[in-house]
Amino acid sequence: MSDRSIRERISDLVQEEHALRDMLSSREISPAEEQARLGQLEIELDQCWDLLRQRQAKREFGENPDTAQVRDARTVEGYQG
């Protein structure tokens, strides 16, 4: 997966997030449905950003960025800042 394709996926996820909020406002979905999907989107966004950071770090240290891999949700969501 290239940096460009990861950024495109991030953009798609952000657009979906906005669409969910619009759907909630127009009562097309319930708050519970919105929250459930937003939780999934947040995890996938975090995974995408993590993958971009991994790729950048590999480039900085002369490694192949294509060897970076998506980490599981538990790992990404467990980061302490």
Record keyword descriptors for this entry.
72% helix; mainly alpha
Describe the structure.
This protein has helices at residues 3-25, 31-60, 73-77. The protein is an all-alpha fold. The chain has one domain (3-77). The protein is elongated.
Would you kindly provide a brief summary of this structure?
This protein is mainly α and 81 residues long. It has three helices and no strands.
State the distance separating the first and last CA atoms. Answer: 26 Å
Largest sheet: none
The number of helical elements comes to 3
Category by helix and strand content: mainly alpha
Radius of gyration: 15 Å
Mean pLDDT: 94
SSE pattern, N- to C-terminal: HHH
Number of strands: 0
Helix content: over 70%
Given the C-alpha coordinates, what overall shape results? elongated
Sequence stretches where pLDDT stays below 50 over 5 or more residues: none
Strand content: under 5%
Secondary-structure map with pairings?
Elements: H1 3-25, H2 31-60, H3 73-77
Helix pairs in contact: 1-2
